[in-house]
Every structure is written in structure tokens, then in C-alpha cells.
Amino acid sequence: MARFSSLWSACVWVAACWFAPFPAHAQSGYDVPFVPTPPVVVEEMLRLANVGPADFVIDLGSGDGRILIAAAEKFGARGIGVDLDPDRIEESVYGAQLAGVSDRIAFQRQDLFKFDISRASVVTMYLLPSVNIKLRPRLLKELKPGTRIVSHDFDLEDWRPDQKSTVRKNVFLWIVPARVDGRWRASIALPAGERGYEIEIRQKFQEIDGLVRYDKKIASLWNARLSGDHISFVVVDDSGPVETNLYFDGRVAGDAIEGVIRRGVGSDQRQIKWRANRIASAS
Ligand SMILES: C[S@@+](CC[C@H](N)C(=O)[O-])C[C@H]1O[C@@H](n2cnc3c(N)ncnc32)[C@H](O)[C@@H]1O
């Protein structure tokens, strides 16, 4: 019985600590309670996102401002934090002054669901699974390809992270992918002559696969990868006497891809410029 009662008190204590911040904030109508990210996790989030002086970081639900203050103080970034709680905004402004980074970061009292995120090169979040999922369509639509998103503790369901790190807590990193799904047409100057390719790409977030049609044949796109606006894949070229790999690399800009194909290996390696235009989007 004594053992049961001590186990029970331990459970009550854990539950009390875990849920302690929730009621007050739930009453204030916020979507997420204020639970600050521990400094070592802040450091890991910013390291994983590779934050640097060229970055503009937006912290959605910025709490006491610690992520942005660290981003400015230790990584030289600029940015803005948004939170609904006026006390948190006041603390953040004061914290930024103390750290001497008020010229690089700002804090705004606003609903994160209404805040314009398109300026960000990095978005940081410590929210809740339901909030992450509600935000997901906007993250995909409004952020530029290549923008890094880091989330403390909670993922984005079937949008798999590009990287995951665990330093006391899980930290997830996503790189916003360009939209590459659909059919693309390219004409490639191969040594055996010009060849027209129709490239069909299927996409689920940053995961892509596809096929290529040419001369009434169909071949696979091998090792297809997408990271932000950078796409790469391999097509086997059978136009010459010996089959050779064509290593496609390119940058996606709207309905065009431009880049370089490496053909052959070692001293035999040649580079061919290529460009593809989208002729149909996936529905
Ligand atoms: C878990 S805390 C994270 C604080 C900080 N980003 C960190 O990691 O230390 C979540 C913050 O989101 C804020 N918040 C909740 N709902 C919000 C909303 N709809 N718009 C803006 N901020 C919100 C809360 O006030 C709280 O400060």
C-alpha cells in the first residue's frame, strides 16, 4: 500500500509539473502555453538550421525571446519574434536590450497565424503538434524554397524532416522544397546529337521520383533528390556505343530548371549545360 501511495504521489507530482502552465494560458486563449526552450536546445536548433549573419529568423510564439536573442548574439542573425502575450513581449524587448542586440531583432505582439512569414530565411517554432499541422500549408506556400524550419519537440507529421537531432529534446529541421511536380521538357546536347527529354516528376514534400521519356523509350530517374531549389538525378544515356550516366544538377526557378549535367568520369568527364521548362503541373 505504501509503495502504491508513493507511486501515486510521484504520478501526481509529474502530472502537476507537466500541466502546471496550461490552465492559466488556456484561459487567456493562447494556442500554446509558455514553456521556454532550454538554452542547450536553443543552441542546437540554431546550429542545425545553420543560422548565420545573412539570416532573417522568425520565431513563431517567441516567448521570452531567447531563441532570437541567441540567434542575434551568438550567430549574428537578424529577425523578429511574434507572441500574443504582452508580458512575454516586454521581457523579450528587455532581454534584447540587455544582450545589446536590439538593433538586430524586434518583437511584435500578434497572432502567429496572421503574421507574414514570407521574409524569413529561418523559422523557429516550439509550439504543439496541432498548431504545427495547422501552420504547415502556410509554411509550404509562403516560405521561399530553401528556407529552413526548425521545431523543438514536435514534427510536421508526414512531411518528414530533412534532419533530426536529439540533445536532451528532439529538434527537427526541414528545408522548404521548390515545387517540381509535373512534366518538364528539355533538349540536351549529347555527344551523339541533340536529344529531347520529357521528364515527369512526382513529389511529396521534398521526396521526389520520376521517369524520363525520349525516342519512344521510358527510363528511370535514379537518385532523385530535392533540397530547397536544388534538384539532382541520374539518367542512363544509351545514345552512344557504351551506356554512360548523366548526372543532372539544377536550380528550380518557377517553371524553369537550369543547371549542368556531368557526363563520364575522371579525365573523361564533360559538362553539358541544360535547361528544362515545365509543360504541365501535377494536378
Ligand atoms: C512553448 S512557448 C515557446 C517560447 C519560445 N519560442 C521558446 O522556444 O522558448 C509558446 C509561445 O507561443 C505563444 N503563443 C501561443 N499562441 C500564440 C498565437 N496564436 N500567436 C502568437 N503567439 C502565441 C505563447 O504565448 C508562448 O509564449
What does it look like?
With 283 residues, the protein is of the alpha+beta class. The protein has 2 domains: 151 residues, Vaccinia Virus protein VP39 (Rossmann fold); 100 residues, Beta Barrel (Lipocalin), CATH 2.40.128.120. Helices cover 26% and strands 40% of the residues. The chain is built from 6 helices and 16 strands. The protein has a 9-stranded antiparallel sheet with strand order 11-10-9-8-16-15-14-13-12, with no helix packed on it. α4 links the parallel β1 and β2. α3 packs across α4. Bound molecules: S-adenosylmethionine. The site of S-adenosylmethionine has 23 residues, from α4 and β2.
Chart the SSEs and their pairings.
Layout: H1 2-19, H2 22-28, H3 39-48, E1 56-60, H4 66-75, E2 78-83, H5 86-99, E3 105-109, E4 122-125, H6 129-142, E5 148-152, E6 163-167, E7 169-175, E8 182-190, E9 193-204, E10 207-214, E11 217-220, E12 222-227, E13 230-237, E14 244-253, E15 256-263, E16 270-281
Parallel strand pairs: 1-2, 1-4, 2-3, 4-5
Antiparallel strand pairs: 5-7, 6-7, 8-9, 8-16, 9-10, 10-11, 12-13, 13-14, 14-15, 15-16
The structure holds S-adenosylmethionine.
Properties at a glance:
40% strand; seven-stranded mixed sheet; 2 domains; Rossmann fold; alpha+beta; single chain; Lipocalin; 26% helix; binds S-adenosylmethionine; 283 residues; nine-stranded antiparallel sheet
Short structural summary:
It is built from 6 helices and 16 strands. It is of the alpha+beta class. The protein folds into 2 domains: 25-175, 3-Layer(aba) Sandwich (Rossmann fold), CATH 3.40.50.150; 182-281, Lipocalin (Beta Barrel).
